[in-house]
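LAB NOTEBOOK - FOLDING QUEUE
OPERATOR: T.R.
BATCH SIZE: 2
PURPOSE: Compare the predicted C-alpha cell outputs for two unrelated chains run back to back under identical settings.
PRIORITY: normal
REVIEWER: second-year student, initials M.K.

ITEM 1
FIELD SEQUENCE / FIELD STRUCTURE:
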Amino acid sequence: MFRSIRARLTLWYTLIVAVIFVFIAVATYRYVSATLYENLDLSLVNEAKWIASRLDRQKPEEANAVVINEIKEHSAYYPMKEYVEVWTPDGRLFCRSSNIGTDSLVKYVSFTPDSEVVWTTVSTFAMLPPLRMLVQKSAGARIVVGVPVESVEQTLEQLVRVMAWMGPLVVLLAFVGGLFLAKKSLSKVNQVTEIARKISADRLSARLPSHDVDDELGRLIGTFNGMIVRLDSSFEQMRQFSADASHELRTPLTVLRTQLETALSSRMPPSEIKKIVARCLDEAIRMGSILENLLLLGRGDAGQASIKRERVRMDDLLEDTYEESVILASQKSIGVKIENTTNVMIWGDKQRLRQMILNLVDNAIKYSPENTAITLSLSQENGEASVVVRDQGIGIPKSETARIFDRFYRVDRARSRTLGGSGLGLAIVKWIVDAHAGKISVKSTIDRGSEFTVVLPVAKQ
C-alpha cells in the first residue's frame, strides 16, 4: 500500500499537518500561559497599589478601624480569592484578611528589610493550591498579597483538553483531505497510465489525453505525446526503410536469377554466356554498393562509424576530387570545372569528405543532360568553409527538397533506377556533414539545375 505515490503523499500531508498542529498547540499554550500569569501578576500589583493608597491617608500605627475594614471588605469581595497581610516596619501585624486564619503569609516569603518588591510562588500554604505572592514595601508598611494560581491552571488544563481532542480530529481531517487531494491530483496519472499501457509499436497513433492546465502533469503529458510522435515517425521510417531496402535488393537479385536461369536452361555460345556473366557482375557490384552504404549508415546511426580527426586542406581535396569527377562526367559528355578556391583548413576525416564531394558530383552527373557543365567552388567566410556543387540538370521541385536526404528517397523513382541510383548517396552526404558539425542546403530550379552547399567549421589555428 505504501509503495503507491497516493499513499505516500497522503501520509506526508497528514504528518506535516500533525507537526504544524503540535507546533501551533505548543506555541498557543505557552502564549496563553504567559499571558494569564502576566495578568495575574498585574492584578497583584494593582491590589498592592490600592492597599497602599488606603494607607497613604495615615501611618499604619495611627490608622483607624475604618481603613482596616476597607481592606478586609475589599479582599473579601475581590473577584478572585485573595489573601492580604499588612505589617508595620517594626514587625507588628496591622491587618490580615479573615481567610488566612491563624497562619501567616510572611513566613513563606524570604525578604530583607531593604527589599522593595519580592515575587514568589508558594505551594505549601494552608494545604491550598499554589499561591502567587507579592511582597511590596510601601508607605512605611510591608504589604503582602497572594492569589491562588488555580484559576490559571484550570484555564490551561481546559486548553490542553481542547487541544487533546482537536488533535486527533485535525489529523483525521488531514488524512481524509490528503487522500482526497492525492486521489484527485493523481486521477489523471492513472488515466494516462492506462492509455500508455495500451500503446505499442502497432498503436503508436494513440495519444495521451491532453491536460488543459500548464502544470507539471500537463508538461509531462506533452512530453510523452511528443515522444510518441517521434517514435511513430521513427517506426514509420524504419518500415519505409525496410520496404525500400527490400525493393532495392530484390531488383538486382531478380536480374541475377533471371540471367543465371537463362544461362542454365539453354545452350548458348560462350560470347553470350560472357555477356550474362558481365551483367550478373554489374548487379552483384550494385548490390554490394547498396549493402556497403546500408552498413555505413547503420553504423552511423548506432554511433559506431569511425570518423577520423585530422587537419585537411579542403582546396587540395577539391583538386583531387576534381580529377576523378572529370573522369566520371566524361562518360556523359558533361564538363566539370572549378570556379574558385581558397586555402581552407578544417578538422575532419579526409576519406569521408572526399566521399561527400564525389557523391554530390555523382548525383549531379546522374540528373544532368549531356553537354552541360558541373561547377565546383570553395570559399571561406566568418570562420566557415563553403563547398558548392552546381549543375545544370533537371532540378528538384520545392515540395521535394526537404526529403531528398532521406534514405532511398527519389524525386523520380523510375528515372532514378534507370540511371542506376540507389537513393542512398545524398543520405550518406547528410550523415558525413552532420558528423563534421556542418550544414547542407540546396537551391534548385526545375529544368535549370541545382546547387548544393555544404558549410563546415574552419579549423582554428
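ITEM 2
FIELD SEQUENCE / FIELD STRUCTURE:
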Amino acid sequence: MLILPQFLIAMPGKSPQKDWGVRVVGGKINVVAGNHELRSRFPDDEILEAPHSVLSPGFINTHIHMYGVLAHGIPLTKAPSGFWAFLDNFWWPLVENALDSEMIAAAADWVCAEMLRSGTTSFYDCLEAPFAIPDALLAQKAIVEKRGLRGILSFEATERVSKENGQLGLRENANFINLCQKEAGLVQGMMCFHTSFTCSSAFIQQAFAMGADLGVLTHMHCNEGIHEPEYALEHFGKRTLELYDELGVTGPGMMASQCVQLSEREQAIIAEKGIKVTHMPLSNCEVGGGIAPIPELLSQGVTIGLGSDGYLNDMFEVMRGAFLIHKANQLNPQVLPAETVWYLATEGGAKTMGLDKLGQLQPGWAADLQLINIDFPTPATEGNLYEQLVLRCNQNHVNDVMIAGKWRLRNNILLDADVDAMRARVQSNAERMWKKAA
C-alpha cells in the first residue's frame, strides 16, 4: 500500500517533508519517498490518498495504568489532602485493592480504544491489583491482542500487603515475561516493583536481578512527590536514587517513572547511569506532585518518554501539558519546543521502553503510524506544523491508525469493536468497584 499525505514526519523532531509518503509491505515501511515518485515506481499498489493530513509515527505512551479509568468520578466524601493521603486513603484501599480480573479486562478494553482513537500504537502498562493475582496480566493480554496494539505489560509488585504477596507479584511478572518471549507477539512483559517505601532493599535487588536474567527493563515509580525522598532520607539517610545507586541497581536496565522531586545529585545519577525516565506532566499536577525537571534532564542526554499515567489518555493533551507547563515553570517560552515534545511522544518513547525500530517511519521499521487531519483555519507549513499539531489537535483529528501493517482505526472509527458495549461493560465494572469502596 502507498500512503500519500500532505506532510510526512518520518523522523520526529526533524523537519516535516511536504508531499512525501511511504510504501508499506508486510507490516513494515518499505520505501519513503515523494508522493509523485511512489506513484511512478509502484503503479499497481493500492493507494490511500490523504490530502490535508500528516503521516506520523504512532504515539508511544510510556506509562499508563489502564485500570485507572475505573476511578474516574468515584464518589469521595473529601479529596485527598496530599500525595500520601492520595495513596493510603484513596488509591490503595478504594481502587487497587478492589480490582478483580473482570474489572481489569473491562478497563483495558476501554482504554485500548481510547489510545487507538488518539493515535497511540504502543504503550507500557503498570498494573497493581494485589488480590487479583496470579494471572491478572493474562486478562489484560487477551484484550490488548484483540485490539491489536503493541503493549508491554507489567505487574507492580509490592510488599505493602505482605512479603508473600510481593513474591507473588514478582512471579506474576516473570511468568508473563517468559510466556510472551516464547510467543514473540506484539505483547511483551517487563519487571516492575512499586517504590522504595513499599518494598525492602532485598526485594528491590531481587526484582532487578530477575529483570536482568530475563533480559527486560525493571520499572518503578520514583519521587512522584515529596513523600518518597523524605521517607528515604528518614529511613536510609539518603535520597531515593542515592539508595538505588548504593544497592547497585542503577543503570540502563532501570526505567523510572515520574522523577518529579529530584535533587541535583539524583539528576546526575540518572544521567551518569543511563537511567530511562518517563514523564507524566498532567497527572503530576493532579496529585500535587510538582513539575519534573525534564528540560534539565534532556540537556544532560537522558532518554525520556511521555506517558498519560491513566489520567488523560489522549497523547495530544499530554504533549500540550508538557509543551506549556515547563515554559511557565521556567518563565521561558523557548523551553521544550513542539518538535521536541513530538519526539518524546514517539521515538523518545520507543527508546525509553527499549523498542527497536519503532518511532520513525524508515525502511525496515515497523509500520506503526497515524494519519492526522490538519485542515486548520490557517495554513500548515513545514515551519509551523509541529506547533500547530501540538497546540490545535486532539483525538478527534486522528483519522487512521495502523499497527504492524494492519489498520486498527479507519476514518476515526475503531474497527471490529462495539464501542457502546465496551462503554456499558466498563461502567458496570466501575459501579461494582465503587460499591466496594462505599
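REVIEWER COMMENT (ITEM 2): The CA atoms of residues 225 and 289 lie 4 Å apart.
FOLLOW-UP: none requested
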